[in-house]
Amino acid sequence: MARNGSRSVPQEQPEPRGRIRVLLVDDHAVVRRGIRAYLEVLDDIQVVAEAGHGLEALERMAAMAAHGELPDVVLIDLLMPKLDGVATTARIMERYPVMRVVVLTSFGEMERVHAALANGAAGYLLKDAEPSEIVAAIRAAACGEVFLDPAVARKLTQEIVSPPKGLGALTSRERDVLALVAQGRSNQEIADELVISERTARTHVSNVLRKLQLASRTQAALVAVSQGLVPPPVA
To answer: Quick check: 16 pLDDT over 80?
Structure first.
């Protein structure tokens, strides 16, 4: 499906000509070095650049675009400082709609996987994937195909068929917010405690109420007590 953007998007991705140009984006230099070392022995893949976080990746891509040398595939970690893989993927697809992005993730980052796919990622791999799987994902993405790690795909399918309920639907941060709500904290007090903005705290509270299908902070407090997140009030 074509995405809106400044450049036209072909209906089908053609078979890549020559070597597949890859940009590696990961905040751990040793990870980038290991992946590069494996890919550099292949005849059809070339690592053209590296970046340690999303902002650096976007800067490198802008410089490469100015010379008509954009990579074919971006292999990107989801959890990075300054600009994470989810936000970076969204910006890449907005600026370069024909780009193919493959994300690296941990099994516990399913919420980020959902977001990355929604932002246009063409595939995802677990960080402990075999080198051969990374190569397969890059080749598939370059040809316009989608590569999904089987373990993550099963988890996503399970969540679609049987979405988590109750506290299981909350992220760890949302559980922290729920506990603070149960303690009677205001949005500003929650923000101060978690070192986030008041607006972000308010968003978290709204998400907690929505996911738990509750109408008020009082109901949220009762749920937190009943589930053992916080001790019951002393009589």
So the answer is: no
